[in-house]
Structure formats: C-alpha cells, structure tokens
Amino acid sequence: MVYDITIDGKGYRLELERAEAGWRCRLDGRDIQMDAVLARRDVLSVLIAGKAYEIKREHTATDMHLWVGSVRYLAELRDPRSLRGRKGTDADEKGPKKLLAPMPGKVVRVLIGEEQPVEVGQSILVVEAMKMQNEIKSPKKGTVRKIVAAEGANVNAGDVLAIVE
Amino acid sequence: MFNKILIANRGEIAVRVIRACRELGIVSVAVYSDVDRASLHVRKADEAYHIGPAAAAESYLNFAKILDVAKRSGADAIHPGYGFLSENAKFAQACVDAGVKFIGPTAASMEMMGSKTRARQEMEKAGVPFVPGTSRGLESAEQAEQVAAKIGYPVMLKAAAGGGGKGMRLVHRAEELKSALEAAQSEAERAFADREVYIEKAIINPRHIEMQVLADEHGNTVYLGERECSIQRRHQKVLEESPSPIVDADMRRRMGEVAVRVAKAAGYSNAGTVEFLVDQDKNFYFLEMNTRLQVEHPVSELTTGLDLVHLQIRIAAGETLPFAQEDIRIRGHAIECRIYAEDPDNNYFPSPGKITLLLLPSGPGIRRDSGMYEGWTVPIDYDPLLAKLIGYGTDRTQAISRLTRALHEYFVGGIKTNISLFRRILTDADFRAGKLDTGYLDRLLKSKPPELRGGHPEVAAIAAGIFAILDPASAPAVNGNSFPRAADGTVGGTAGSSWKRAARVEGLV
Hints:
Strand order of the largest sheet of chain A: 4-3-2-1-9-8-7-6-5
CATH superfamily of the largest domain in chain B: ATP-grasp fold, B domain
Shape of chain A: elongated
Oligomer: heterodimer
Largest sheet of chain B: 8 strands, antiparallel
Number of helices of chain A: 0
Number of domains of chain A: 2
Largest sheet of chain A: 9 strands, antiparallel
Radius of gyration of chain A: 22 Å
CATH class of the largest domain in chain B: Alpha Beta
CATH topology of the largest domain in chain A: Glycoprotein, Type 4 Pilin
Structural class of chain A: mainly beta
Number of helices of chain B: 17
Distance between the termini of chain A: 45 Å
Distance between the termini of chain B: 58 Å
Number of strands of chain A: 17
CATH architecture of the largest domain in chain B: 2-Layer Sandwich
Shape of chain B: globular
Largest interface: A-B, 71 and 71 residues
Number of strands of chain B: 22
CATH class of the largest domain in chain A: Alpha Beta
C-alpha cells in the first residue's frame, strides 16, 4: 500500500506492507524498522528502533489530527491512485469573506449593520455559548455586506454569520 | 443523619456530592434537564428525575420543580453544589419552608453575603479591610462617573449578585464607563436575574487568595488554610493551589482570623470561602464571601486531609465540628487544573461536542473529579467545566511534576480542551517561581509559546498509514466506497457535514 501523507503541511510518501513478523515500512524511500499495535480504537502503540510512541487520532468536523505524545499534527492521507490536482484552497483576501461561527451557540447581539464599514478585528456579532459571550471579529477591513444570522438565532459551528467584503 | 439527599446540580460537582453520599450511606437523588439525560451524574446517582428543558431557568434554577422532586423522592436534604441555586437565599428559604434541609448557610447569611454591597456595609462594621469604592449599587451612569472620578481610574464594575466573572468589567477611561456599565448590567441580569452593579477602585495585578472556612451550627468556626487563585482568564479561575507560594504561617493566621471574623459577623454556618485581594506588599482586602462549596475545594481537602463534602453534610445534620482550629495541619502541596471544553487555538472559544476518545491519568498524587466520559456529548447549554485534575505532593515542586506527568497522560479527543494550557503554565518560569498575580495568565497567553520539543512528524506520518490499515472504521474508508471522497482525493477530513464538504471545496475552511 502506498500513501501520500501530509503532516502539518509537509509531504511524505509511505509504503506499508504487512510482513511475516510485523511490517515492511518505507518512508520517503528509507526502510524503517517498525512495529505497531492498535491498543484500542484511535490509539496506536508504535515502536521504531526501540523507541516507544503512543499516537492518538481524532477527527474534527474538517480535519484529522494525530497526536504523538502531547504534540498535535494535522494529518491528511491520500491514496495516490485517486490523486487529482487540488483546488486552490487559499481564501481570497480580496473577495468577500465569510465569518463562520467557531462553535455552536446563540447570536445575542449584532453590533454592526449591513453596508457599514469595519476595521480588521472589529467585533461584528456576539455569540453566546456555555454562558460565555464571545465577540466575532472581522477578518478584514471592508464593508459588512450581509448579516446572515439575526439576533436570537441559534447557530452551529461552521455556520455563516456574516459576509465582509 | 439524612437518609436521602437531592443534588440540585449537574456535572462534576454533582458526581462529587453523589460520591460523598454513597460513602456516608445516604441515598442520592439526581435531577436532570432534557440535554442531561446521559450525563454522568444521572448515571451515578441512586435515583434521578427529569426537571425540564435545557434552559437552566426552567430546570436547574427552578425552585418548584426541584422542591417537587425532593418531596416526591422523599429527600430530607438538598445539596446545591456551586453555581445554579447554591447562593440563592430565596431558594434556601424555600427549602426551609418546604421542610427540607438546605446544605449550606442560612438564607439570612446568604442574603447578607450574596449582595456584595450589603456584605460590604456589614463587614465594614466588623472592621474587615476593604478596597475603596461604593458599598451600594449604582443608580445611574452619571453616579458611576462621579464615583469613578473620585476614587480614580482604573475602576472595576461588579455585579452585586455576582461570581465567576459574570457581570464584571474593568474600565480604564471615563469614555468607556457608560457602555461597560450597560454590558455589566445586562450580563448580570442574564446570569443572576439581578441588574445591580457596583464600582470599586481596581488594584492592578493583585493576587487573588481565598480562605476556606467551616462553621457548624453551634457557633464553632475554623479556617482551613488559603488557596492561591490568581491564575484567571476573564475573571474565571483556571488553576488553583494550596498553600499559596507567598503566604507564610503568620500571614495565614492573620488572614484566617479575618475570615473567621467575617463568617461570624454573617452568622455563617457550613462551608464557605472568604476571598481576598492581595497587593504587592501583601496587604489583603476583603473581596467577597462565597457562601457555598468552591470548585477548587479539592486542593484544601488534600492539604488538610479533610473531606469538605462529608463535613458539609454532617454540619447540616446538626453535628458539631469534630476538631478545633489547633487540630488543623496544612501538609504538602496541591494544585488543581480546571479542564474546560474550550479551544486554546481559537481564543478559548467554548468547544462543546462529542468526546470520541478519553484517556485518563492516574498514579501517585493524582486526583480526578470529572463529569465527563467517552461517548458523551458535552451540551452547549452550561458552563464549559468538564473535570478537575488535582496533583498532590510533599512540596510544590513534587506537586508540579506529578501534575505535569499526569497532564501528558490525559487525552480528550473529539472536542477541544485547555489541557495544553496547563502544560504551558506548569513549565513557565514565573509560575515555577511562584510569581503570580491576576494578570499572569493574560501575559503568558500574549507571550510566544515555547517551541515544542520532541516533535516527531515522521512518526505521525507512519501512524497515519497504519491507522488507515488497522483501524479504518472510525475514519472514512481509504479504498472502499462506503464514504464519499472529497474532490481532491483527501480522506482525512471528510467526516463533517455536507456543508463542511461544500465549504472545503469552495476553499472557505
């Protein structure tokens, strides 16, 4: 099995095969002595040249994270056979920018009206979750084109709250 | 002794009280809202009753529903935990009227201490030291401006019924005062159903040190040593320890004696905490009295060897304190970390959701008081406190090293927590030197985080492949067809909603 893996933005090619006594593992063309045991779902014990590592996996709404000890890595794994060119994923700083709710909650106040100018870092809305009020700030200088979430609206993480252009 | 106790709370503190009940042979009764049916306290209690919708006003704050459950279940006492109804004098009185024992002080003591302005008037009479300010609620923005001009900026606005940082605002300039006052009043209204806000001179970067007291209903009052609570974010305590690195035996005795005087002036019984602001010269000023069990009570339990919840229950049952002041010894050092569901990488926004993986620390000197479990979904409706991790050692250095070790064992997956923050605090030079004040955490968070040592990205890369082979179940399948694949062939991050996938394709996230 061959994988293209990205860890915190750096690419690796991993060749993995089950061998008689464990695994055959090549990382970027280097042979690596490695043993791995799945301790439980989402938890791996990996031994590499005598060193022991515990790796935890978690999925968020958008990402997969792997924790080696207490260090977290953003991981993406791709099967090269299905590889297609990635779309441009960098948000266009010049175009309209959507403000997304960072967590589920309730919009308790809208501080700026539509078509009003905003500065970078200026608060546009206040979202309350778990008894804390959190100000949602503008990512750019521009104009508030649209307030999508009205006062009193319940929002989920990732919902569009407003659009700044 | 009581036969049955209703716990009018949820989360880790409800579990804590249920455990004490079980230890004392008392039947425990839990109550729960719509979103808490699967919560740990409901699983752990002997009996549990539904009390309404998620909104606290219609469940955990609803007198009638809670007293009705007490009656139906035959509970002879109610433990309020902290937060919710714990400092509500009207509820304490309603318990008396309903013939159920409220485990805490009398309504009269709570009323006096619950209003910070009235507490101040009474404590000034008793000769307790205070920070300059108003001893009554502000009637108008104009009045606030006059008082602020007199005592000098910066000033602090505080909810009279407050606690936990709600309804508090630091104001540096006269221009900010009016809007800050309105914000504090509206936050106070929502949090405590009481708009009253008062004003005080702000002592910049003080320490926040509090004294645990315990009083029986026969006039005996003792202090159990201090807790250093200076590490706060948004006026919310994050890490507490006992003893304080700056309090010596003489200062402890002086603070303790003032705390006992405060409790006696309030006619106080049961467990309570007297909070002090301490300035750079170790002068201490009375801040407020919390008329309930504190979140951070475990550090005092570890250093005194006492069980505060047992003692609360025994005092409420009419027993006399089984020890005197001179019997109390402070031994060793304890530090508590409050594990919150919040995202350290995103300005500590709340991070509710499902806990997909939970690995727990244990071993010497580690205590864990928790309200969470793997597979549980943390609701958005309540405080983000998930659990408390407490480290104990013969001295501060050992407590720190045990806690640091345990924090590396602790893993909460699926939601974000502030566990990484504690690793950072515990390795910070100022923290280790005991150089703390209430501005400490803000300064730490503004400073550049230390480089993480021991990074192993290549191990993560290998693990990514092994997971894909050995444990593909909880992730989208690599080669199978059971999960839709994102347009770019990525399989790591497609577990989210269709909205997320669309957004991802659009390059928005």
